[in-house]
From TrEMBL:
Name of the protein this chain belongs to: GXWXG domain-containing protein
Organism whose genome encodes this protein: Aquipuribacter hungaricus
Domain (DUF4334) ranges: 128-187
Pfam families in the cross-refs: DUF4334, GXWXG
Residue stretches of biased makeup (Low complexity): 1-11
Region (Disordered): 1-21
The GXWXG domain, residue ranges: 29-86
Length: 188
């Protein structure tokens, strides 16, 4: 399986304008990273955003995104969020307004994040909502997380750390987005 935008960062943002230098730098770091195989992802990972000028910049962290959990290649929680009490829950991606968020229409504030956290129990799931496959992304075959019900694929590259303390760079490719969203994962 090959996912789109497979081309390296170009001189424009997909609309003919200049690409954000932060996006270009993040994609260069992703391209320089080592391939990650599916079994390398097993475990729980703490996430953080990589600012690149993407419309979703700042959104996940404002809404208390915590990370991802890979129990097996068939049993993945793609979106873990921390509740007001610090409890980490897997939320069902189908119930989150990602399409609205990806267009930059969702407000970003810690106060709103605390309010949204109240709804976490209603958005929670006990079922896996993604799986992992080997996929070619940007010319390299490696692990990619495929969402079960959304047109989203997250690809991963190792960019630092040692065994047990790895650091991964993730690239979210969502159908319809002009540019990818990037994030970091550190083993929890």
């Amino acid at each position: 399986m090959t996912t789109g935008p497979a081309r390296p960062a170009g001189p424009d943002d997909g609309e003919g304008g200049p690409a954000d230098p932060r996006l270009v730098a993040a994609l260069e770091a992703f391209d320089a990273g080592a391939a990650v195989m599916p079994q390398d992802l097993l475990g729980r990972w703490r996430g953080s955003e990589v600012p690149t000028g993407h419309p979703m910049d700042g959104l996940l962290e404002a809404y208390r995104w915590w990370g991802k959990e890979f129990r097996s290649t068939e049993d993945v929680d793609p979106l873990l969020f921390a509740g007001r009490d610090g409890t980490v829950r897997a939320l069902d991606p189908r119930l989150l307004p990602l399409a609205v968020a990806a267009r930059g229409w969702a407000p970003r504030s810690a106060a709103l994040g605390r309010v949204v956290a109240v709804a976490h129990p209603l958005l929670a799931t006990r079922r896996p909502r993604a799986r992992v496959r080997e996929t070619e992304v940007r010319g390299v075959v490696g692990a990619a997380m495929v969402y079960d019900h959304l047109p989203v694929v997250d690809a991963f590259r190792r960019v630092g750390g040692t065994a047990g303390e790895e650091e991964l760079l993730g690239l979210m490719d969502r159908r319809g987005d002009r540019v990818p969203f990037l994030f970091r994962l550190r083993r929890a």
